[in-house]
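[Q] Does anyone have a clean structure-token version of this?
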Amino acid sequence: MFQNCQTHETTPARETTLACLEAGIEAAVPKRVVPNTVSLEGVETNDSGGSDGSPRLRVLDTTYDLTAIDRILVLGGGKASGAVTAALESILEPALETGVLDGLEGLVVANAPESTEHVEVVVGDHPTPSEQNLEATAELLKLAEKATDRDLVLAPITGGGSALLTAPAAGLSLETLATTTDELLASGASIDEINAVRSRCSCIKGGGLARAAAPAAVVTLAISDVVGDDPSVIASGPTVTPPGTLESALAICRREGMAIPEAVVDHLDGNEPEETEIATDWHCLATTRTAIDAAERVATDRGYRTLVLSSRLEGEAAHVGRTHGTLAASMALDGEPLEPPAVVLSGGEVTVTLGDADGVGGPNQELALAGTLELADIDEVGSRAVLASVDTDGIDGPTDACGAIIDGRLLESAALPAARRALESHDVTPFLEECGALLETGPTGTNVNDLRVLVVEER
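[A] Here you go.
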């Protein structure tokens, strides 16, 4: 999975670090997740081409009777939606071959092509929505509006769907919505407040897809890229009730000092209040914890003591990195909270506040560098600790790297001033590239947030 593995796997600790990362990412890819969580039951091909048993679709612990279903529509979007769709087609093919289903069709908007036979996978642009995204989402909504009560809608909803599924409400433009989001972010509004506004300015977000597909039953198959796995936050909740109310969204836009475009305020002010909540089935097939658990199994099998620090870590990348570095020092010197050999795992989503800086980097790269700098002056620890942090989708910030792997030996005393300057100026990618510390995978086909592995060897 990782490029230039021979360069990175120079010690047992570094090899274990990469093995844990690879296991974590692979555990969350749709081709593994979907067959483990979705299955077709009661459909077996016999000599006459018919079916045996009571045909049903199982998603985790819930089953759906297919005897009342003529057609399955797959409608959704996000970075992993194409791969989820390909896996669904493979699972559902026997139902088509035996005549249990009359049809399988649909459309998803992803950021990479995928080979499918029945469902169209349209490649859109991410992170900035384009006309291609608008056209594909409009076509998706047209298909949803044609659904009947004899259809079952399966909705793959994954990270990246907020940009890939783009359908501004009547009278609003992409530029207006982008300005609104920027203003909300700059004001310090919470993610719930941001989604309360932008979900009500879209034809697909905030339950828009589910409303368009009524009266068909809608079953969401989500892969979470957000801390806490809130259904209304993942891809801005196309199949669930938006957070807050119309009145609260208007109140947010009218806060003192807020410069929300007038068109957005007028749109919200002219809407009718929501009367009912959206009733759909929502299943989360994979989360950050999926990746952490797989990584932990690798560490345990190799004889390491393990600790899951948290799957919900947020905050400034450098601060979280320094916390990991301090933890490594405590383990190596004092045996607390674990006696080495030990592996500490964590997940979540960290951020970088750039200010006036215009350097090149990513939050996972900053985290790894900041954590290792905490160890650079402690010779006994720096040679025994390895810290790696990656974004599981294979892209860390606006770079080709997914993250970085560093140990104290990479930071020779002569390199320490340059490392500190790189971190302070948020220009870490050139420094890490020169050190040979960048990790690259290319797009992984999944996205369950960040994954971090800290390995501390015994004395």
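[Q] Thanks! Anything notable?
[A] Confidence is low (pLDDT under 50) at residues 46-51.
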